[in-house]
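Holo prediction — flavin-adenine dinucleotide.
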Amino acid sequence: MQDTTRILDVAGIGFGPSNLALAIALRERGEEAPSAAFFDRSPSFGWHRGMLIDDATMQISYLKDLVTLRDPTSSFSFLCYLKDRGRLVDFINHQILVPSRTEFHDYLAWAAARFPEVVSYGSEVTAVRPVPGEHAIDCVELVIRDVAEPDRTRTCLARNLVLATGLRMALPDGVELSERVWHSSEFLHRLAELPPAPERSFTVVGAGQSAAEVTNHLLGAFPDARVHAVFSRYGYSVADDSPFANRIFDPAAVDDYYLASPEVRQSLMRYHGNANYSVVDLDLIKEIYRRQYQDKVAGVHRLRIANVSRVRAATPVANGVDVQVEFLPNGEVETVNSDVVIFATGYRPADPMPLLGELGDFIELDDEGMLRVDRNYRAVTSEKLACGIYLQGATEHTHGISSSLLSMTAVRSGEIAESLCAAVRPTS
Ligand SMILES: Cc1cc2nc3c(=O)[nH]c(=O)nc-3n(C[C@H](O)[C@H](O)[C@H](O)COP(=O)(O)OP(=O)(O)OC[C@H]3O[C@@H](n4cnc5c(N)ncnc54)[C@H](O)[C@@H]3O)c2cc1C
Protein backbone atom coordinates (compact mmCIF):
# COMPACT_ATOMS: atom_id res chain seq x y z
CA MET A 1 0.00 0.00 0.00
CA GLN A 2 1.46 3.38 -0.92
CA ASP A 3 0.77 6.60 0.86
CA THR A 4 0.31 8.66 -2.33
CA THR A 5 -1.38 11.51 -0.54
CA ARG A 6 1.81 13.43 -0.01
CA ILE A 7 5.52 13.53 -0.56
CA LEU A 8 7.43 14.04 2.67
CA ASP A 9 10.19 16.61 2.80
CA VAL A 10 12.23 14.27 4.99
CA ALA A 11 12.14 10.53 5.73
CA GLY A 12 14.38 9.30 8.52
CA ILE A 13 15.46 5.67 8.65
CA GLY A 14 16.12 4.65 12.25
CA PHE A 15 14.92 6.46 15.36
CA GLY A 16 17.78 6.05 17.78
CA PRO A 17 19.40 9.08 19.46
CA SER A 18 20.69 10.50 16.13
CA ASN A 19 17.37 10.81 14.33
CA LEU A 20 15.58 11.59 17.59
CA ALA A 21 17.91 14.59 17.96
CA LEU A 22 17.13 15.51 14.35
CA ALA A 23 13.37 15.31 15.00
CA ILE A 24 13.88 17.71 17.90
CA ALA A 25 16.08 20.08 15.86
CA LEU A 26 13.47 20.14 13.08
CA ARG A 27 10.59 20.78 15.48
CA GLU A 28 12.55 23.59 17.11
CA ARG A 29 12.82 25.36 13.77
CA GLY A 30 9.13 26.20 14.16
CA GLU A 31 7.13 27.13 11.10
CA GLU A 32 9.95 26.62 8.64
CA ALA A 33 10.29 22.97 9.75
CA PRO A 34 9.97 20.57 6.82
CA SER A 35 7.44 17.73 6.97
CA ALA A 36 9.15 14.62 8.33
CA ALA A 37 8.48 11.00 9.25
CA PHE A 38 10.79 8.47 10.88
CA PHE A 39 10.75 4.68 10.74
CA ASP A 40 12.31 2.31 13.25
CA ARG A 41 12.20 -1.46 13.20
CA SER A 42 12.11 -1.78 17.01
CA PRO A 43 8.65 -2.29 18.53
CA SER A 44 9.15 0.79 20.74
CA PHE A 45 11.94 3.24 21.51
CA GLY A 46 15.08 1.45 22.71
CA TRP A 47 18.77 2.28 23.05
CA HIS A 48 21.12 -0.71 23.38
CA ARG A 49 18.65 -2.44 25.67
CA GLY A 50 20.68 -5.67 25.72
CA MET A 51 23.48 -3.80 27.53
CA LEU A 52 21.48 -1.78 30.07
CA ILE A 53 23.48 -3.40 32.83
CA ASP A 54 22.81 -2.17 36.37
CA ASP A 55 25.53 0.27 37.40
CA ALA A 56 26.84 0.79 33.85
CA THR A 57 27.40 4.49 33.35
CA MET A 58 27.48 6.76 30.34
CA GLN A 59 30.82 7.54 28.74
CA ILE A 60 29.90 11.19 28.33
CA SER A 61 28.70 14.09 30.42
CA TYR A 62 24.93 14.55 30.77
CA LEU A 63 25.51 17.92 29.08
CA LYS A 64 26.17 16.01 25.86
CA ASP A 65 22.49 15.18 25.65
CA LEU A 66 20.29 15.46 22.57
CA VAL A 67 20.26 19.26 22.49
CA THR A 68 22.39 21.23 24.95
CA LEU A 69 25.47 21.76 22.76
CA ARG A 70 23.18 23.08 20.02
CA ASP A 71 20.74 25.01 22.20
CA PRO A 72 21.10 25.01 26.01
CA THR A 73 17.61 26.52 26.32
CA SER A 74 15.84 23.58 24.63
CA SER A 75 13.04 21.88 26.58
CA PHE A 76 14.51 18.50 25.49
CA SER A 77 17.63 18.76 27.66
CA PHE A 78 18.64 16.21 30.28
CA LEU A 79 18.09 18.89 32.92
CA CYS A 80 14.49 19.44 31.74
CA TYR A 81 13.99 15.67 31.87
CA LEU A 82 15.27 15.62 35.46
CA LYS A 83 12.96 18.49 36.38
CA ASP A 84 10.03 16.68 34.77
CA ARG A 85 10.84 13.48 36.68
CA GLY A 86 11.22 15.40 39.97
CA ARG A 87 14.91 14.50 40.40
CA LEU A 88 16.71 17.74 39.53
CA VAL A 89 17.82 18.52 43.07
CA ASP A 90 18.65 14.87 43.78
CA PHE A 91 20.82 14.71 40.68
CA ILE A 92 22.70 17.86 41.68
CA ASN A 93 23.34 16.45 45.13
CA HIS A 94 24.59 13.25 43.52
CA GLN A 95 27.56 15.33 42.22
CA ILE A 96 28.13 13.30 39.10
CA LEU A 97 28.62 14.25 35.44
CA VAL A 98 27.89 10.83 33.97
CA PRO A 99 24.44 9.35 34.64
CA SER A 100 23.80 5.62 34.59
CA ARG A 101 22.95 4.15 31.20
CA THR A 102 19.56 3.13 32.55
CA GLU A 103 18.78 6.72 33.46
CA PHE A 104 20.02 8.03 30.12
CA HIS A 105 17.84 5.45 28.38
CA ASP A 106 14.89 6.75 30.33
CA TYR A 107 15.81 10.29 29.27
CA LEU A 108 15.96 9.28 25.61
CA ALA A 109 12.63 7.42 25.86
CA TRP A 110 11.09 10.49 27.56
CA ALA A 111 12.19 12.67 24.64
CA ALA A 112 11.08 10.11 22.03
CA ALA A 113 7.63 9.89 23.63
CA ARG A 114 7.06 13.49 22.54
CA PHE A 115 7.06 12.44 18.86
CA PRO A 116 4.22 9.93 18.49
CA GLU A 117 2.95 11.63 15.34
CA VAL A 118 6.19 11.42 13.36
CA VAL A 119 7.65 8.04 14.24
CA SER A 120 6.45 4.59 13.20
CA TYR A 121 7.89 1.78 15.29
CA GLY A 122 7.90 -1.85 14.17
CA SER A 123 8.58 -0.49 10.68
CA GLU A 124 11.71 -1.71 8.93
CA VAL A 125 12.81 0.07 5.79
CA THR A 126 13.92 -2.76 3.50
CA ALA A 127 14.62 -0.81 0.31
CA VAL A 128 14.82 2.66 -1.14
CA ARG A 129 14.07 3.25 -4.82
CA PRO A 130 14.61 6.25 -7.09
CA VAL A 131 11.51 7.93 -8.54
CA PRO A 132 12.52 9.74 -11.74
CA GLY A 133 11.23 13.32 -12.19
CA GLU A 134 11.24 15.51 -15.28
CA HIS A 135 14.94 16.50 -15.12
CA ALA A 136 16.39 14.39 -12.32
CA ILE A 137 15.44 11.96 -9.58
CA ASP A 138 13.72 14.33 -7.19
CA CYS A 139 11.92 11.84 -5.01
CA VAL A 140 12.59 8.43 -3.45
CA GLU A 141 10.26 5.62 -2.49
CA LEU A 142 10.81 3.78 0.78
CA VAL A 143 9.63 0.20 1.14
CA ILE A 144 8.59 -0.39 4.73
CA ARG A 145 8.02 -3.83 6.22
CA ASP A 146 5.70 -4.30 9.17
CA VAL A 147 7.92 -6.22 11.62
CA ALA A 148 4.92 -7.74 13.43
CA GLU A 149 3.42 -8.97 10.15
CA PRO A 150 6.38 -9.43 7.79
CA ASP A 151 4.19 -10.12 4.75
CA ARG A 152 2.73 -6.61 5.00
CA THR A 153 4.67 -3.83 3.34
CA ARG A 154 3.83 -0.26 2.52
CA THR A 155 5.67 2.50 0.73
CA CYS A 156 6.12 6.21 1.16
CA LEU A 157 7.66 9.00 -0.88
CA ALA A 158 10.21 11.56 0.27
CA ARG A 159 12.43 14.28 -1.17
CA ASN A 160 15.23 13.80 1.37
CA LEU A 161 16.49 10.80 3.30
CA VAL A 162 18.37 10.72 6.59
CA LEU A 163 19.96 7.36 7.35
CA ALA A 164 20.73 6.78 11.02
CA THR A 165 20.67 3.01 11.22
CA GLY A 166 23.34 2.71 13.91
CA LEU A 167 25.87 0.00 14.51
CA ARG A 168 26.11 -3.65 13.46
CA MET A 169 27.72 -6.29 15.61
CA ALA A 170 31.26 -7.29 14.64
CA LEU A 171 32.20 -10.95 15.08
CA PRO A 172 35.43 -12.80 14.32
CA ASP A 173 35.37 -14.72 11.03
CA GLY A 174 33.64 -18.07 11.28
CA VAL A 175 31.72 -17.34 14.49
CA GLU A 176 28.03 -18.21 14.31
CA LEU A 177 25.64 -16.98 16.97
CA SER A 178 23.44 -19.59 18.65
CA GLU A 179 21.63 -20.30 21.89
CA ARG A 180 25.00 -20.58 23.68
CA VAL A 181 27.10 -18.24 21.52
CA TRP A 182 26.08 -14.61 21.99
CA HIS A 183 27.14 -11.14 20.98
CA SER A 184 27.27 -8.62 23.83
CA SER A 185 24.48 -6.54 22.21
CA GLU A 186 21.97 -9.28 23.16
CA PHE A 187 23.56 -9.99 26.54
CA LEU A 188 20.77 -9.20 29.03
CA HIS A 189 18.01 -10.66 26.84
CA ARG A 190 19.90 -13.95 26.45
CA LEU A 191 20.93 -14.05 30.10
CA ALA A 192 17.29 -13.74 31.17
CA GLU A 193 16.45 -16.81 29.05
CA LEU A 194 19.28 -18.96 30.43
CA PRO A 195 17.86 -21.85 32.48
CA PRO A 196 19.01 -21.88 36.11
CA ALA A 197 22.03 -24.06 36.95
CA PRO A 198 24.10 -24.43 40.12
CA GLU A 199 27.51 -23.50 38.72
CA ARG A 200 27.86 -21.49 35.61
CA SER A 201 30.86 -20.99 33.38
CA PHE A 202 31.17 -18.19 30.86
CA THR A 203 33.78 -17.19 28.32
CA VAL A 204 33.89 -13.49 27.49
CA VAL A 205 35.86 -12.52 24.38
CA GLY A 206 37.22 -8.97 24.05
CA ALA A 207 38.94 -6.28 26.10
CA GLY A 208 36.78 -3.22 25.45
CA GLN A 209 34.19 -1.49 27.61
CA SER A 210 31.41 -3.96 26.79
CA ALA A 211 33.63 -6.98 27.52
CA ALA A 212 34.66 -5.51 30.86
CA GLU A 213 31.05 -4.66 31.76
CA VAL A 214 29.87 -8.18 30.88
CA THR A 215 32.71 -9.78 32.86
CA ASN A 216 32.06 -7.59 35.89
CA HIS A 217 28.32 -8.19 35.74
CA LEU A 218 28.72 -11.98 35.56
CA LEU A 219 31.09 -12.00 38.53
CA GLY A 220 28.62 -9.94 40.54
CA ALA A 221 25.40 -11.67 39.49
CA PHE A 222 26.65 -15.28 39.71
CA PRO A 223 28.77 -15.69 42.85
CA ASP A 224 29.52 -19.32 41.94
CA ALA A 225 30.27 -18.71 38.29
CA ARG A 226 33.62 -19.10 36.60
CA VAL A 227 34.42 -16.44 34.04
CA HIS A 228 37.10 -16.92 31.44
CA ALA A 229 38.11 -13.63 29.80
CA VAL A 230 39.97 -14.00 26.51
CA PHE A 231 41.67 -11.12 24.72
CA SER A 232 44.75 -10.35 22.67
CA ARG A 233 45.91 -7.38 24.77
CA TYR A 234 48.12 -7.89 27.82
CA GLY A 235 45.49 -6.35 30.04
CA TYR A 236 42.42 -4.10 29.93
CA SER A 237 43.60 -0.65 28.81
CA VAL A 238 42.19 2.58 30.10
CA ALA A 239 39.98 4.95 28.07
CA ASP A 240 41.65 8.34 27.78
CA ASP A 241 39.00 10.84 28.81
CA SER A 242 41.45 13.44 30.09
CA PRO A 243 40.48 17.04 29.29
CA PHE A 244 42.82 17.80 26.39
CA ALA A 245 42.39 14.42 24.70
CA ASN A 246 38.62 14.72 25.11
CA ARG A 247 38.68 17.71 22.76
CA ILE A 248 38.77 15.22 19.88
CA PHE A 249 35.00 14.95 20.49
CA ASP A 250 34.43 18.73 20.24
CA PRO A 251 32.49 20.27 17.36
CA ALA A 252 35.68 22.13 16.32
CA ALA A 253 37.49 18.80 15.93
CA VAL A 254 34.98 17.83 13.24
CA ASP A 255 35.95 20.88 11.20
CA ASP A 256 39.65 20.11 11.60
CA TYR A 257 39.16 16.46 10.69
CA TYR A 258 36.97 17.30 7.73
CA LEU A 259 39.61 19.67 6.30
CA ALA A 260 42.58 17.37 6.92
CA SER A 261 44.38 15.23 4.35
CA PRO A 262 43.91 11.45 4.48
CA GLU A 263 47.33 11.12 6.17
CA VAL A 264 46.45 13.62 8.92
CA ARG A 265 43.07 11.95 9.44
CA GLN A 266 44.77 8.59 9.84
CA SER A 267 47.22 9.93 12.37
CA LEU A 268 44.41 11.58 14.36
CA MET A 269 42.59 8.25 14.52
CA ARG A 270 45.83 6.54 15.55
CA TYR A 271 46.50 9.06 18.33
CA HIS A 272 42.95 9.20 19.68
CA GLY A 273 41.37 5.82 18.94
CA ASN A 274 42.13 5.03 22.58
CA ALA A 275 39.49 7.55 23.62
CA ASN A 276 36.84 5.12 22.36
CA TYR A 277 37.97 1.82 20.86
CA SER A 278 38.97 -1.30 22.84
CA VAL A 279 39.38 0.66 26.05
CA VAL A 280 37.70 0.63 29.45
CA ASP A 281 36.82 3.16 32.14
CA LEU A 282 39.47 3.14 34.86
CA ASP A 283 36.93 2.62 37.68
CA LEU A 284 35.63 -0.52 36.01
CA ILE A 285 39.14 -1.90 35.47
CA LYS A 286 39.85 -1.34 39.16
CA GLU A 287 36.58 -3.01 40.15
CA ILE A 288 37.38 -6.15 38.14
CA TYR A 289 40.88 -6.22 39.59
CA ARG A 290 39.45 -5.78 43.09
CA ARG A 291 37.07 -8.70 42.60
CA GLN A 292 39.85 -10.94 41.32
CA TYR A 293 42.12 -10.00 44.20
CA GLN A 294 39.40 -10.58 46.81
CA ASP A 295 38.79 -14.00 45.27
CA LYS A 296 42.50 -14.78 45.58
CA VAL A 297 42.41 -13.80 49.25
CA ALA A 298 39.46 -16.16 49.71
CA GLY A 299 41.30 -18.91 47.82
CA VAL A 300 38.86 -19.11 44.91
CA HIS A 301 39.63 -18.51 41.26
CA ARG A 302 36.47 -17.39 39.57
CA LEU A 303 38.00 -15.05 37.00
CA ARG A 304 40.65 -16.43 34.73
CA ILE A 305 42.18 -14.07 32.24
CA ALA A 306 43.63 -15.54 29.05
CA ASN A 307 45.58 -12.53 27.80
CA VAL A 308 47.63 -12.37 24.58
CA SER A 309 45.17 -14.96 23.31
CA ARG A 310 42.51 -15.35 20.71
CA VAL A 311 39.54 -17.61 20.18
CA ARG A 312 40.10 -19.90 17.20
CA ALA A 313 36.73 -21.65 17.33
CA ALA A 314 33.62 -21.85 19.48
CA THR A 315 31.82 -25.13 18.86
CA PRO A 316 28.45 -25.87 20.48
CA VAL A 317 28.50 -29.31 22.15
CA ALA A 318 25.99 -31.21 24.33
CA ASN A 319 27.23 -29.60 27.57
CA GLY A 320 27.76 -26.05 26.34
CA VAL A 321 30.43 -24.71 24.00
CA ASP A 322 33.99 -25.88 23.41
CA VAL A 323 36.15 -22.82 23.00
CA GLN A 324 39.57 -23.21 21.41
CA VAL A 325 41.86 -20.54 22.82
CA GLU A 326 45.25 -19.91 21.24
CA PHE A 327 47.99 -18.37 23.38
CA LEU A 328 49.60 -16.08 20.82
CA PRO A 329 53.23 -16.06 22.10
CA ASN A 330 53.72 -19.82 21.52
CA GLY A 331 50.68 -20.81 19.45
CA GLU A 332 49.54 -23.41 22.00
CA VAL A 333 45.81 -24.13 21.82
CA GLU A 334 43.72 -25.03 24.84
CA THR A 335 40.09 -26.16 24.71
CA VAL A 336 37.90 -24.69 27.43
CA ASN A 337 34.32 -25.81 27.98
CA SER A 338 31.83 -23.05 28.90
CA ASP A 339 28.07 -22.91 29.29
CA VAL A 340 28.02 -19.77 27.20
CA VAL A 341 30.45 -17.69 25.12
CA ILE A 342 29.86 -13.97 24.80
CA PHE A 343 31.61 -12.17 21.98
CA ALA A 344 32.06 -8.59 23.15
CA THR A 345 34.00 -7.91 19.99
CA GLY A 346 32.48 -4.58 19.15
CA TYR A 347 30.53 -3.01 16.35
CA ARG A 348 30.94 -1.39 12.97
CA PRO A 349 28.73 1.33 11.47
CA ALA A 350 26.01 0.03 9.18
CA ASP A 351 27.05 0.30 5.52
CA PRO A 352 24.38 2.50 3.89
CA MET A 353 24.96 1.13 0.37
CA PRO A 354 22.90 -2.11 0.52
CA LEU A 355 19.84 -0.19 1.74
CA LEU A 356 20.31 2.56 -0.84
CA GLY A 357 20.34 0.05 -3.69
CA GLU A 358 20.24 1.79 -7.10
CA LEU A 359 20.52 5.20 -5.42
CA GLY A 360 24.05 4.25 -4.43
CA ASP A 361 25.08 4.44 -8.10
CA PHE A 362 24.58 8.23 -7.97
CA ILE A 363 26.82 8.79 -4.94
CA GLU A 364 30.41 9.84 -5.59
CA LEU A 365 33.21 7.78 -4.04
CA ASP A 366 36.67 8.97 -2.93
CA ASP A 367 40.00 7.38 -3.92
CA GLU A 368 39.59 4.77 -1.20
CA GLY A 369 36.15 3.79 -2.48
CA MET A 370 34.44 5.48 0.48
CA LEU A 371 31.33 7.66 0.16
CA ARG A 372 32.00 11.35 -0.40
CA VAL A 373 30.04 13.39 2.12
CA ASP A 374 29.80 17.17 2.41
CA ARG A 375 30.41 19.03 5.67
CA ASN A 376 26.65 18.92 6.45
CA TYR A 377 26.62 15.12 6.24
CA ARG A 378 24.94 15.08 2.83
CA ALA A 379 26.27 12.48 0.40
CA VAL A 380 27.83 14.07 -2.67
CA THR A 381 25.82 12.85 -5.65
CA SER A 382 25.70 13.33 -9.40
CA GLU A 383 23.34 15.99 -10.73
CA LYS A 384 20.96 13.23 -11.81
CA LEU A 385 19.97 12.80 -8.17
CA ALA A 386 18.32 15.91 -6.75
CA CYS A 387 17.24 14.27 -3.47
CA GLY A 388 19.36 14.79 -0.39
CA ILE A 389 20.82 11.69 1.24
CA TYR A 390 22.15 12.51 4.70
CA LEU A 391 24.19 10.14 6.84
CA GLN A 392 24.26 10.02 10.62
CA GLY A 393 26.85 7.55 11.86
CA ALA A 394 28.64 6.19 8.80
CA THR A 395 30.93 9.22 8.39
CA GLU A 396 33.95 8.41 10.53
CA HIS A 397 36.15 8.57 7.41
CA THR A 398 35.11 12.20 6.73
CA HIS A 399 33.96 13.65 10.08
CA GLY A 400 36.07 11.74 12.60
CA ILE A 401 35.78 9.63 15.70
CA SER A 402 32.61 11.21 17.12
CA SER A 403 30.53 10.24 14.07
CA SER A 404 28.89 7.21 15.66
CA LEU A 405 28.90 8.61 19.20
CA LEU A 406 26.60 10.85 21.19
CA SER A 407 29.11 13.68 21.69
CA MET A 408 28.26 15.40 18.42
CA THR A 409 24.61 14.31 18.15
CA ALA A 410 23.09 17.63 19.19
CA VAL A 411 25.30 19.76 16.95
CA ARG A 412 25.29 17.36 14.01
CA SER A 413 21.52 17.08 13.93
CA GLY A 414 21.28 20.89 14.08
CA GLU A 415 23.58 21.15 11.07
CA ILE A 416 21.56 18.56 9.16
CA ALA A 417 18.29 20.30 10.09
CA GLU A 418 19.65 23.58 8.79
CA SER A 419 20.80 21.99 5.54
CA LEU A 420 17.41 20.28 5.12
CA CYS A 421 15.54 23.53 5.68
CA ALA A 422 17.74 25.24 3.10
CA ALA A 423 17.15 22.40 0.62
CA VAL A 424 13.39 22.33 1.13
CA ARG A 425 12.87 26.12 1.11
CA PRO A 426 15.66 27.64 -0.96
CA THR A 427 15.83 31.41 -0.44
CA SER A 428 16.53 32.34 -4.06
C1 LIG B 1 26.38 -0.56 24.87
C2 LIG B 1 26.70 0.75 24.21
C3 LIG B 1 26.91 1.87 24.99
C4 LIG B 1 27.21 3.10 24.38
N1 LIG B 1 27.43 4.16 25.19
C5 LIG B 1 27.79 5.33 24.62
C6 LIG B 1 28.08 6.47 25.43
O1 LIG B 1 28.03 6.41 26.66
N2 LIG B 1 28.43 7.63 24.82
C7 LIG B 1 28.52 7.73 23.45
O2 LIG B 1 28.83 8.79 22.94
N3 LIG B 1 28.25 6.67 22.67
C8 LIG B 1 27.90 5.48 23.21
N4 LIG B 1 27.63 4.40 22.39
C9 LIG B 1 27.72 4.57 20.89
C10 LIG B 1 26.35 4.56 20.19
O3 LIG B 1 26.57 4.42 18.82
C11 LIG B 1 25.54 5.81 20.39
O4 LIG B 1 25.26 5.88 21.75
C12 LIG B 1 24.15 5.86 19.72
O5 LIG B 1 23.47 4.65 19.86
C13 LIG B 1 24.16 6.31 18.28
O6 LIG B 1 22.82 6.59 17.94
P1 LIG B 1 22.18 6.25 16.52
O7 LIG B 1 20.80 6.75 16.54
O8 LIG B 1 23.10 6.75 15.47
O9 LIG B 1 22.23 4.67 16.40
P2 LIG B 1 21.37 3.56 17.23
O10 LIG B 1 21.23 3.94 18.65
O11 LIG B 1 22.04 2.25 16.96
O12 LIG B 1 19.97 3.59 16.53
C14 LIG B 1 19.76 3.11 15.22
C15 LIG B 1 18.29 2.75 15.08
O13 LIG B 1 18.04 2.41 13.71
C16 LIG B 1 17.10 1.35 13.68
N5 LIG B 1 17.25 0.71 12.38
C17 LIG B 1 18.36 0.12 11.86
N6 LIG B 1 18.12 -0.29 10.60
C18 LIG B 1 16.83 0.03 10.32
C19 LIG B 1 16.00 -0.12 9.16
N7 LIG B 1 16.46 -0.69 8.03
N8 LIG B 1 14.72 0.32 9.21
C20 LIG B 1 14.24 0.91 10.34
N9 LIG B 1 14.98 1.09 11.46
C21 LIG B 1 16.28 0.67 11.44
C22 LIG B 1 17.46 0.50 14.89
O14 LIG B 1 16.35 -0.26 15.32
C23 LIG B 1 17.87 1.56 15.91
O15 LIG B 1 16.80 1.93 16.75
C24 LIG B 1 27.32 3.19 22.97
C25 LIG B 1 27.13 2.05 22.19
C26 LIG B 1 26.82 0.84 22.80
C27 LIG B 1 26.64 -0.37 21.92
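READOUT: The chain has twelve helices and 19 strands.
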